[in-house]
TrEMBL record, chains A, B:
Annotated GO biological process: regulation of intracellular pH; sodium ion import across plasma membrane
Pfam families: Na_H_Exchanger (PF00999)
Listed Gene3D superfamilies: 6.10.140.1330
Protein name per UniProt: Sodium/hydrogen exchanger
Molecular-function GO terms, alphabetical: potassium:proton antiporter activity; sodium:proton antiporter activity
High-level lineage: Eukaryota, Metazoa, Chordata, Craniata, Vertebrata
Transmembrane segments: 53-70, 82-99, 161-178, 190-211, 226-250, 304-331, 343-376, 423-442, 454-473, 485-507
Length: 686, 686
């Protein structure tokens, strides 16, 4: 076949940095045949993509069936995520070594005079234009690999898929299913671990790794650049803990709820902190030529980026949650159409992510706080069917995304081409991770007066998972990043398999109570002396009490149909405004002098019957203290807080619980329904 | 800034058709700055993408809120899909005319000597390699548009998104929620409409449009090529009907169930037929130079493609459905973990699509039959919670996808750049669509003995929707395709707004019964004379009776836990095999001499109490006729069939019903539960 290419240059535009289009012209005479070939190639490529995705789907199917087998046989030494990784590893080995695809491609060289990489590239082949989109930068060493094995590259996903598709549902689910009672009870400790602890851990790991890197440089084991910022970046990404495995076992064994809350709260928040931290480390760019020296201004700017991105994402997430709550509060008739309600909830939560990304904030962080806001306000306005639907939907999405990430993780160990396994760096990393975790947990636990067995357990439960992996695979262009990625994979494997598998022995070794019914414990705390259980929580409760009063008296009545009417909580001068904002249902609540939260506790056990109206008595303005505490117990707002949050926990499925305990109490909507019914009849009577 | 580009040609490989890689080399000196610019550009592009998607999400949110308002006010003149289109139109107008983005890009010309368009393109800019992926072909006229308005192009989705992401859940939902009783009762008519009718309609429209095209050529109104195959292709794509709007109103008004089944069955199947038909028309390629002449061999080959693709997709869909049923049948303990069960169901259904695409069949068609198989077999093996979850999940996905497609449809009227609105073609198309529908409905209705008011209603309800749109937007490269796309949009708008809005007046004009309770009607049919209602269905039932017996006696027992035990239905010689394949639950059923399907009817009304064991008496082998019909009524297998399918309908939500009637009978799981409970106690007694 003869090709007569005529080069033609459309226009020699001056090289500017805003260019985003590029035309590539080439003419060949044999257009008809080429056409068919191109179409066939596109079809072939689509088929191949389908087949690759199918491999993953079948992998997930296999994982699910095996998980079932494990659950059925009550094996606790290997969690589903560990299992998914093993399957991923096996498939990776098969793809790497067992399948040999004959290399059927040839290189065609395009010589062209562009000086930047535009987002869109137009190539003119035989009079037909083909559009190409920028996929990303490729390191020089990878080019040979592309030619080596196209097939392995095919099963490699764009790392942005993890951030834009797989992480959001996982993080949203975490926020939406937070055990809020215990979370808020331990808010002080959790915030300390998540913010102070993660930053400390990041810097400890960074410094330690910098020492290792210097050592490696000394003995000539370093094959490329490795700067201090790279070390800090590594510190940030391996500081994100993911205790899915541990928490699943905690749930199954019903481990102490405070320990559960500490671990869960810490891991959820420190994902967000580590993510923002890593992006502000990347943003550290001193001026001048030497881009890796220390500079106070650049440092301050990075710190500003951290604060700005975190608070911006937080504000956006909360704002979208509040808007959703307001919509569901205003359009009450939406409750009759659960499908619309669920769709609205899903779309609003998704738009949080998109809005944050569009504004330059971090979508994943926004989604976390959106989830928490939705659970706290919107959830109360949803119809019971929508409550179930949204929970189940995000549970399913979380399950699929999580298992996909973990099996992909196993796969990449063999299919990723640029692994840099450096023994010194790996040993150093394991030590650094251990030290960083210790520096995070022990000093802060001492300050927060957490018992030593809890400290050891938290130390042990610092598993690394989805977030660490997603952060490390996001950029594997340089030598340093490749070494980090390979090492991170090993850290994840080790912690998930060894620490995850060792949870049960560790629990019994540390003599931590198992089989604790968190509701039971709640009622114990309201025993005759009323103080015994709150010794650990009093320290952090003070900072939350102000917030709680504000939330209960003003936000809940405005955003949900529960809580006291605003007319009761606002000062008398705001009367007209309050009447206008209060929903009719709130007045019904007022008629009974209790809100639905405390009412539920009424149905739960007879001992709390006397406290049916405590939540109203927490009112700081003193407008409604008609419901006086009975029995002479000093009932303070902490208990009301406890109960309110306990109520919320009832309705939310604990992360992963469904998998372990189908007889979880969230499965019994009956008390709630009977309560609702009772509420209706009572309002008819009154 | 100075750029010193050095052209370098890596290797001058011979031009082969298998090439899939291409290197494009160019060197510039200013690499550091370029790097940052590229990164910023990628970030900017990501932000823009997020913002675009956000527009759609907010559009959907707005649509949902307005739908709710319409439902609330009981407006029936405009359906949600019509509403979504209006919002899409408005946003399209705003994007097109109100927002002016300053064109900030320049063209850089790449001159290069390739003779084909590879799937991956590597561009070397300043020593860094950037990877580009092939997005698709662009028509010459579009190139200027790209330069004109990048922003409008940004809100344009890859047409393959419709086929690979949005259509599958819609079609699966259609299959999963098919009202199977009435569908099978009218199977003959539905198959006639779907296969014969769609082909007839396609050819009538194609011939008529070819006449129009010849006329246009005569008077010089044609601005490009328009071949007979293009006309036929147009005929195929506008023959796919989408009666979402009509059926939603039918549901609300409880229109005659047979009419509903005819319309729904026809529209679901003719989507599949039209899709395969259009791809086999594209596959029509006569040998030789003149590629648009008639040639018998090519025609036969196209026909072969049609049969092959359709039957292949059908077989694949059914096969995956059966495999899922077998898994859920074997791993019965999975019922304890509804999350795993739902995930498995979802993954298996998705893998049908991927498998079909990977094999070169049509994923959408495979998914339709997979949905029907899942509903018929797998659904019976799922736990009640998973039954709810899967229904709700696909209902939500269907709702979101459908509204997205319709609002996108409205948007493209203004944002698509290559509209070709030809008055003659448009008028011709409307006439042709009318004629084609008439040629589909009236002759076949005459053969199937369908009353004239039903015929007129079906004629009127031939709305065009998602499938027509997706097929027409798939390829808009040539002049002919652009004209088709523009005309198709208008046809969809017209039918959805005018025919959709006119459904209620049309129903009353044609004096079609409304307010018919389909269950009630079922029991009327088993009145004392027992024949009155089956006059319309007897014709088609004979071809289904053989299948029904086979399904009921062999497939249901093997694939589900309902149905009689195999030991009863297989000949005695197969005893050991039968015992091995029959589930213990089936024996329990046998002990009571009835299966769960007929048992439900027992609970439904007292008149049918006498027929509690009819389904076993349908056994063709005569092994179990112990349960004799009481009351002297000639009970034949048709009635059992009716009842079994009626039972299934109880459990499946009718497409769109949730939206309209929250008090739909599928909302009452109580009879089912009490039945289940009763079944258990009875087996304890026996």
């Amino acid at each position: 076949m003869q090709n007569k290419c005529k080069h033609r240059q459309l226009c020699a535009a001056p090289a500017r940095h805003e260019l985003s289009l590029c035309l590539c012209l080439c003419r060949a005479e044999d257009s008809a045949m080429e056409n068919i070939v191109t179409e066939k190639k596109a079809e072939e490529s689509h088929r191949q993509d389908s087949a690759d995705l199918l491999v993953f789907i079948l992998l997930l199917t296999l994982t699910i069936l095996t998980i079932w087998l494990f659950k059925h046989r009550r094996c606790r030494f290997l969690h589903e995520t560990g299992l998914a990784m093993i399957y991923g590893l096996l498939v990776g080995v098969v793809l790497r070594y067992a399948i040999h695809v004959p290399s059927d491609m040839n290189n065609v060289t395009l010589s062209c005079n562009v000086n930047a990489s535009p987002a869109t590239l137009l190539v003119n082949v035989s009079g037909k234009f083909y559009e190409y989109t920028l996929k990303g930068e490729i390191s020089g060493s990878e080019i040979n690999d592309i030619q080596d094995n196209e097939m392995l590259r095919k099963v490699t996903f764009d790392p942005e898929v993890f951030f834009n598709i797989l992480l959001p549902p996982i993080i949203f689910h975490a926020g939406y299913s937070l055990k809020r009672r215990h979370f808020f009870r331990n808010l002080g400790s959790i915030l300390a671990y998540a913010f102070v602890g993660t930053v400390v851990s990041c810097f400890i790991i960074g410094l330690f790794m910098y020492g290792c890197v210097l050592l490696m440089k000394q003995i000539g084991h370093l094959g490329g650049d490795f700067f201090f910022t790279d070390c800090l970046f590594f510190g940030a990404i391996v500081s994100a803990t993911d205790p899915v495995t541990v928490l699943a076992i905690f749930n199954e064994l019903q481990v102490d709820a405070d320990l559960y809350a500490l671990l869960f709260g810490e891991s959820v928040l420190n994902d967000a902190v580590a993510l923002v931290l890593s992006s502000s480390i990347v943003a550290y760019q001193p001026e001048g030529d030497n881009t890796h020296t220390f500079e106070a201004m650049a440092m301050l700017k990075s710190f500003g980026v951290f604060l700005g991105v975190f608070s911006g994402s937080f504000a956006l997430g909360v704002a979208t949650g509040v808007v959703t709550a307001l919509i569901s509060f205003t359009f009450t008739k939406l409750r009759e159409l659960p499908l619309l309600e669920t769709a609205l909830f899903f779309l609003m939560s998704w738009s949080t992510f998109l809005l944050a990304e569009a504004c330059g904030f971090t979508g994943v962080v926004a989604v976390l706080f959106c989830g928490m806001t939705q659970a706290h306000y919107t959830f109360n306005n949803l119809s019971p069917e929508s409550q179930d639907r949204t929970k189940q939907l995000f549970e399913l999405l979380n399950f699929l995304a999580e298992n996909f990430i973990f099996s992909y993780m196993g796969l990449t160990l063999f299919t990723f081409h640029n692994h840099v396994f450096n023994p010194i760096f790996i040993v150093g990393a394991f030590l650094a991770v251990f030290l960083g975790r210790a520096a995070n947990i022990y000093p802060l636990s001492f300050l927060n007066k957490i018992t030593s067995n809890f400290q050891h357990m938290m130390m042990f439960a610092g598993l690394r998972g989805a977030m660490t992996f997603a952060l490390s695979i996001r950029d594997t262009a340089t030598y340093a990043r490749q070494m980090m990625f390979s090492t991170t994979l090993l850290v994840v494997f080790f912690t998930v398999w060894i620490c995850g598998g060792g949870t049960t022995p560790m629990l019994s070794c540390q003599k931590i109570r198992v089989g604790v019914d968190s509701d039971q414990e709640n009622f114990v705390s309201i025993g005759p002396d009323g103080v015994e259980m709150r010794s650990t929580k009093q320290e952090s409760a003070w900072l939350f009490r102000i917030w709680y009063n504000f939330d209960h008296n003003y936000l809940k009545p405005i955003l949900t149909h529960s809580g006291p009417p605003l007319t009761a909580t606002l000062p008398a001068c705001c009367g007209p405004l309050a009447r206008c904002l209060t929903s009719p249902q709130a007045y019904e609540n007022e008629g009974q002098l209790k809100d639905s939260d405390s009412d539920l506790i009424l149905n739960d056990g007879d001992i709390s019957l006397a406290y049916g109206d405590i939540t109203v008595s927490t009112d700081a303005t003193g407008a409604h203290t008609s419901g006086t505490p009975v029995g002479g117990v000093a009932v303070n707002s902490d208990e009301a807080l406890d109960r309110e949050l306990a109520f919320s926990d009832h309705e939310l499925v604990i992360r992963g619980t469904r998998l372990v305990l189908p007889m979880d109490d969230s499965e019994h909507p009956l008390p709630l329904d009977s309560h609702r019914h009772k509420n209706e009849t009572m309002s008819l009577v009154s």
